[in-house]
Amino acid sequence: MSRLLYDLAAADESIRFSPFCWRIKLALAHKNLAFESIPWHFTEKDKIAFSGQGKVPVLVDADRVISDSQAIAEYLEITYPNEASLFGEPPARPLVSFIKTWTETVLHPALAHVVLADIHALLTPEDQTYFRQTREGYYKRRLEDFAVHRTEATAALNSTLKPLKTTLEKQPFLAGLAPNYADHIVFGALKWAVTVSSTPLLEANGVLERWMNAVEETYGLA
Ligand SMILES: N[C@@H](CCC(=O)N[C@@H](CS)C(=O)NCC(=O)O)C(=O)O
What we know:
By secondary structure, the protein is of the alpha+beta class. It is built from 8 helices and 4 strands; from the N terminus they run βαβββααααααα. The protein folds into 2 domains: 77 residues, Glutaredoxin, CATH 3.40.30; 129 residues, Glutathione S-transferase Yfyf (Class Pi), Chain A, domain 2 (Up-down Bundle), CATH 1.20.1050. Strands 2-1-3-4 form a 4-stranded mixed sheet, with helices on one face. The protein is globular. The two termini are 26 Å apart. The model has no long low-confidence stretch (mean pLDDT 97). The chain binds glutathione (GSH). The site of glutathione has 13 residues, from α1 and α2.
């Protein structure tokens, strides 16, 4: 059975940096599902037009096409119930939902303010034009201004990361003794940022780097 995942790539296609795609790569590994990863660039909207929208991840699981990481995670949970649960016991699921909201409304913006200009540098020329236009429109700020304010943005990021560090000093994973989709979501965010950052973002061998390595080792990605 074929299983394809459209995955955001830089000009160098070995660089895969979408936080939402990382979540799903870990979720697929969690469910023991092999897949083929298809590199995709921001401006290749035609390549995923069959999904009826213009963003990745897009999963093609045999004859099923699913877009949006949350929809894909829920599809995997329902379709592959015999593998380990992505969300844990039903009463614990709202906590994963909190982690998703916190990641997307607090952690992603904090990371974006540090690495947005770095992402631009890694893209194909067509994607660079598109990225500048869309991101400068969204943030109402020139990409160069992000680089100028990197020191303040890094200090703000470090404050944002504090609760995560404190938690992971006390327990191996956000979900407890083994990772689940809560870990996948936060891992995706940090993986995105460390992959594209022109400077080290996390303390070498610090708690977050050790946790990221442990997540990767769990799924044989290290
Ligand atoms: N809510 C979507 C968000 C997906 C998303 O924003 N993907 C980005 C890559 S990280 C994308 O494809 N962006 C295309 C664009 O900006 O045109 C999900 O959870 O999958």
